[in-house]
Amino acid sequence: MTGPSSVAFAETLRRQIRETGPIGVDDYMAICLGDTAHGYYRSRDPLGVDGDFTTAPEISGLFGEMCGLYLAHMYELANMRNGAGVIEFGPGRGTLMRDMRHVWDRLMPGLNAAPLHLVETSPSLRRIQREMLGTDAVTAWHDDVEAALAAADGPLFGIANEFFDALPAAQVIHKSGAWHHRLVGLRDGELSFVTGDAIEDVDPSLPDDPAEDMVAELCPQATHIVTLLGQALARRGGAVLIVDYGRDGNPGDSLQAVADHRPVDLFAAPGDSDISHWVDFAALGTAAAQAGARLVGPVPQGRFLMRIGLAARADQAAQHAAPETRRALLAAIDRLTSPAQMGEVFKVALLVPAGAGTPPGFETETGFENEGGAG
Ligand code: SAH
Questions:
Q1: Which SS3 state, helix, strand or coil, does residue 252 take?
Q2: Choice from 119, 121, 149 to test ligand 1 binding pocket (greatest atom count within 8 A of CB)
Q3: If 0-12 CB within 10 Å is exposed, 13-18 middle and 19+ buried, where does residue 45 land?
Q4: Separation of 86 CA from ligand 1 center, angstroms?
Q5: Fewer Cβ in 10 A, N or C end of the chain?
Q6: Which pTM value belongs to this model?
Q7: Which domains does the chain have, with CATH numbers?
Q8: Residue 197, Cβ neighbours under 10 Å: how many?
Q9: Least confident of 49-53, 59-63, 194-198
């Protein structure tokens, strides 16, 4: 979707690059998504059939129900009933939180009564979230994790679904025996990848022994958020689910732009297409451990949801449904869990204080390690 706004925005970007030189891939992504005038997330609702992409909570209410049940279980295990807070990163339309709150309403009123902290930068999505969640929750919106952690007290229970994939990723490329910054510059006057300077201070997490022209990604904002959140959980207790598409290691070149449910060229419609990347769960795990916390998983979403009882819950819901509703329900379950759809590339991890033991849904079986990685 190349609208007049994205044409003007592309010209602004080209002019800036002509005047001050190439910019990092992470800067390009941050500007395209977050620019206050033209940024993709600033002014629109990108989700659902009328938008550019569909997320798990928008596919079926059972996704939010299962996540809500899971967090209710964690809350009960933690046995710290007083002063807990609920946190969500990038709540989108607020659908996931609404569905989790439905469950808590019946099963865990303590979580429903806890103050709700939403980390969201988009003013238009904040409006939609406010409408979706109504006024019975004591809700505060925050621009970043720092502000949310400063405002919230006590143990934190929460979720981030398709949030980390939207944080700006930098790219590096291996050429002539050295890692170089991969930048966005101009080629024949058009936006294009260009190779920047060799990197002196190479990130230790980058793959050893890379092939010529190998591309790798680093997401310092993701590491930063998990570090702060991990430190907070280590001190206060709690549990935060992280659900995203990605792999348990560096994803390589995973940036993709999507408009109208179709992949588009990364440079074709800046500000009018969503840009995301695969999440490096191994990097998040390292950050969590260094913060005194623990990232459990990741495991594939399909396996996680089945392990925590999605099939049984779907059967129960289907029993009372009309045939058409039942078919739609089964199709939604298939979309969320089958390896050919979201079941495998999407992963679930759990950030908790350091400790041992395997929380439900994360039991590993031989042969399942590192499955579904980027090709
Ligand atoms: N969790 C929702 C929406 C995912 S889309 C769902 O599953 O449907 C990504 C969400 O993250 C949007 O709400 C977007 O506005 C928000 N977001 C993206 N970058 C952000 C940032 N840097 N800080 C805070 N929120 C951000």
A1: coil
A2: 121
A3: middle
A4: 16
A5: C
A6: 0.94
A7: 56-167+219-353 (3.40.50.12710)
A8: 9
A9: 49-53
